[in-house]
Protein backbone atom coordinates (compact mmCIF):
# COMPACT_ATOMS: atom_id res chain seq x y z
CA UNK A 1 0.00 0.00 0.00
CA UNK A 2 1.31 3.45 -0.82
CA UNK A 3 2.50 5.80 1.89
CA UNK A 4 0.45 8.48 0.22
CA UNK A 5 -3.04 7.26 0.99
CA UNK A 6 -5.94 8.50 3.04
CA UNK A 7 -5.83 5.25 5.02
CA UNK A 8 -2.43 6.22 6.41
CA UNK A 9 -3.62 9.68 7.44
CA UNK A 10 -1.57 11.58 4.86
CA UNK A 11 -3.81 13.14 2.23
CA UNK A 12 -2.52 13.15 -1.31
CA UNK A 13 -1.41 16.60 -2.17
CA UNK A 14 0.30 18.35 -5.02
CA UNK A 15 2.12 20.34 -2.35
CA UNK A 16 3.62 17.43 -0.41
CA UNK A 17 4.51 15.26 -3.39
CA UNK A 18 7.73 17.07 -4.35
CA UNK A 19 9.07 16.99 -0.79
CA UNK A 20 8.21 13.29 -0.32
CA UNK A 21 9.21 12.05 -3.77
CA UNK A 22 12.95 11.61 -2.98
CA UNK A 23 12.23 9.30 -0.02
CA UNK A 24 9.58 7.18 -1.74
CA UNK A 25 10.13 3.99 -3.63
CA UNK A 26 9.03 3.68 -7.30
CA UNK A 27 6.10 1.51 -6.12
CA UNK A 28 4.93 4.30 -3.82
CA UNK A 29 5.36 7.04 -6.43
CA UNK A 30 3.43 5.24 -9.19
CA UNK A 31 -0.10 5.37 -7.62
CA UNK A 32 0.33 9.04 -6.76
CA UNK A 33 1.41 9.96 -10.27
CA UNK A 34 -1.52 8.00 -11.72
CA UNK A 35 -3.97 9.74 -9.39
CA UNK A 36 -2.39 13.09 -10.14
CA UNK A 37 -2.61 12.50 -13.89
CA UNK A 38 -6.35 11.74 -13.56
CA UNK A 39 -7.03 14.50 -11.01
CA UNK A 40 -8.19 11.99 -8.39
CA UNK A 41 -7.64 11.62 -4.66
CA UNK A 42 -5.62 14.74 -4.05
CA UNK A 43 -6.28 18.28 -3.03
CA UNK A 44 -4.54 21.61 -2.91
CA UNK A 45 -5.05 23.55 0.31
CA UNK A 46 -5.87 27.17 -0.33
CA UNK A 47 -6.54 30.09 1.94
CA UNK A 48 -8.63 33.03 0.91
CA UNK A 49 -9.35 35.57 3.61
CA UNK A 50 -11.90 37.33 1.42
CA UNK A 51 -14.15 34.34 0.71
CA UNK A 52 -17.35 35.06 2.60
CA UNK A 53 -19.33 31.88 1.99
CA UNK A 54 -16.87 29.00 2.04
CA UNK A 55 -13.98 28.18 4.32
CA UNK A 56 -11.32 27.19 1.82
CA UNK A 57 -8.76 26.29 4.47
CA UNK A 58 -10.79 23.51 6.05
CA UNK A 59 -10.48 20.08 4.46
CA UNK A 60 -11.90 16.92 6.04
CA UNK A 61 -8.74 14.92 5.33
CA UNK A 62 -6.56 17.35 7.27
CA UNK A 63 -8.59 17.61 10.50
CA UNK A 64 -6.77 14.71 12.16
CA UNK A 65 -3.39 16.37 11.67
CA UNK A 66 -4.31 19.63 13.42
CA UNK A 67 -3.61 19.96 17.15
CA UNK A 68 -6.17 21.56 19.42
CA UNK A 69 -5.60 25.30 19.71
CA UNK A 70 -7.12 27.27 22.58
CA UNK A 71 -7.71 30.89 21.62
CA UNK A 72 -7.95 33.05 24.74
CA UNK A 73 -9.89 36.29 24.18
CA UNK A 74 -10.98 39.09 26.46
CA UNK A 75 -13.71 41.68 26.08
CA UNK A 76 -11.28 44.22 24.63
CA UNK A 77 -10.63 42.15 21.48
CA UNK A 78 -11.71 44.32 18.55
CA UNK A 79 -10.60 45.49 15.11
CA UNK A 80 -7.53 43.48 14.03
CA UNK A 81 -7.95 41.14 17.00
CA UNK A 82 -11.54 40.45 15.90
CA UNK A 83 -10.32 39.68 12.36
CA UNK A 84 -7.66 37.35 13.77
CA UNK A 85 -10.26 35.48 15.85
CA UNK A 86 -12.52 35.22 12.79
CA UNK A 87 -9.73 33.63 10.76
CA UNK A 88 -8.59 31.30 13.57
CA UNK A 89 -12.10 29.99 14.17
CA UNK A 90 -12.26 28.84 10.54
CA UNK A 91 -9.43 26.40 11.20
CA UNK A 92 -10.09 22.91 12.48
CA UNK A 93 -9.80 22.21 16.22
CA UNK A 94 -9.63 25.87 17.35
CA UNK A 95 -11.59 26.50 20.56
CA UNK A 96 -12.22 30.05 21.75
CA UNK A 97 -12.11 30.46 25.53
CA UNK A 98 -12.27 33.52 27.81
CA UNK A 99 -14.64 36.41 27.12
CA UNK A 100 -16.62 37.31 24.04
CA UNK A 101 -14.91 39.70 21.65
CA UNK A 102 -16.19 43.16 20.80
CA UNK A 103 -18.45 43.38 17.79
CA UNK A 104 -16.94 44.60 14.52
CA UNK A 105 -18.74 47.25 12.51
CA UNK A 106 -18.32 48.22 8.89
CA UNK A 107 -16.52 51.38 9.97
CA UNK A 108 -12.91 51.73 11.12
CA UNK A 109 -9.98 54.14 11.47
CA UNK A 110 -11.74 56.17 14.14
CA UNK A 111 -10.66 59.76 14.65
CA UNK A 112 -11.08 62.09 17.62
CA UNK A 113 -11.60 65.81 17.04
CA UNK A 114 -11.95 68.37 19.79
CA UNK A 115 -14.83 70.72 19.04
CA UNK A 116 -14.04 74.48 18.82
CA UNK A 117 -15.59 75.10 22.24
CA UNK A 118 -13.14 72.64 23.78
CA UNK A 119 -15.98 71.19 25.86
CA UNK A 120 -16.33 67.90 24.01
CA UNK A 121 -14.81 65.64 21.42
CA UNK A 122 -16.31 64.16 18.29
CA UNK A 123 -15.44 60.53 17.51
CA UNK A 124 -16.11 59.36 13.94
CA UNK A 125 -14.92 56.72 11.45
CA UNK A 126 -12.65 57.60 8.55
CA UNK A 127 -12.98 54.36 6.60
CA UNK A 128 -15.69 51.88 5.64
CA UNK A 129 -14.76 48.21 5.37
CA UNK A 130 -15.47 46.33 2.17
CA UNK A 131 -14.78 42.91 3.71
CA UNK A 132 -15.52 40.86 5.69
CA UNK A 133 -19.28 41.09 5.47
CA UNK A 134 -20.09 38.03 7.59
CA UNK A 135 -20.41 38.28 11.36
CA UNK A 136 -20.57 42.10 11.27
CA UNK A 137 -21.90 43.70 14.47
CA UNK A 138 -21.62 40.36 16.29
CA UNK A 139 -19.03 39.34 18.86
CA UNK A 140 -17.42 35.91 18.81
CA UNK A 141 -18.64 34.04 21.88
CA UNK A 142 -16.26 31.57 23.53
CA UNK A 143 -17.11 27.94 24.19
CA UNK A 144 -15.92 28.40 27.80
CA UNK A 145 -16.31 31.76 29.55
CA UNK A 146 -13.87 33.24 32.06
CA UNK A 147 -15.59 35.65 34.44
CA UNK A 148 -12.91 36.28 37.08
CA UNK A 149 -10.18 38.92 37.42
CA UNK A 150 -8.14 39.27 34.20
CA UNK A 151 -5.36 41.16 35.97
CA UNK A 152 -4.54 38.11 38.12
CA UNK A 153 -2.38 36.15 35.66
CA UNK A 154 -2.10 33.19 38.04
CA UNK A 155 -5.89 32.77 38.16
CA UNK A 156 -6.17 33.05 34.38
CA UNK A 157 -3.47 30.37 33.91
CA UNK A 158 -5.13 28.01 36.39
CA UNK A 159 -8.48 28.49 34.66
CA UNK A 160 -7.00 27.79 31.20
CA UNK A 161 -5.30 24.61 32.48
CA UNK A 162 -8.57 23.53 34.14
CA UNK A 163 -10.46 24.00 30.84
CA UNK A 164 -7.84 22.08 28.85
CA UNK A 165 -7.82 19.22 31.36
CA UNK A 166 -11.64 19.12 31.36
CA UNK A 167 -11.75 18.90 27.54
CA UNK A 168 -9.11 16.15 27.40
CA UNK A 169 -10.64 13.99 30.15
Explain the layout of strands and helices.
Layout: H1 14-20, H2 26-37, E1 69-73, H3 80-88, E2 94-98, E3 107-114, E4 121-128, E5 144-145, H4 153-168
Protein architecture, described:
- The protein is an alpha/beta fold and 169 residues long.
- It has four helices and five strands; from the N terminus they run H-H-E-H-E-E-E-E-H.
- Strands 1-2-5 form a three-stranded parallel beta sheet, with helices on one face.
- The longest helix is centred in the last third of the chain and has 16 residues, at 153-168.
- The model is unreliable at 1-12 and 41-51 (pLDDT under 50).
Estimated share of beta-strand residues: 15-25%
Largest sheet: 3 strands, parallel
Helix content: 25-40%
Radius of gyration: 23 Å
Distance between the termini: 35 Å
Q: Give the helices and strands as they follow along the chain.
A: HHEHEEEEH
Oligomer: single chain
Number of domains: 2
The largest beta-sheet arranges its strands as 1-2-5
Class of secondary structure makeup: alpha/beta
Kindly state the mean pLDDT as a whole number?
A: 75
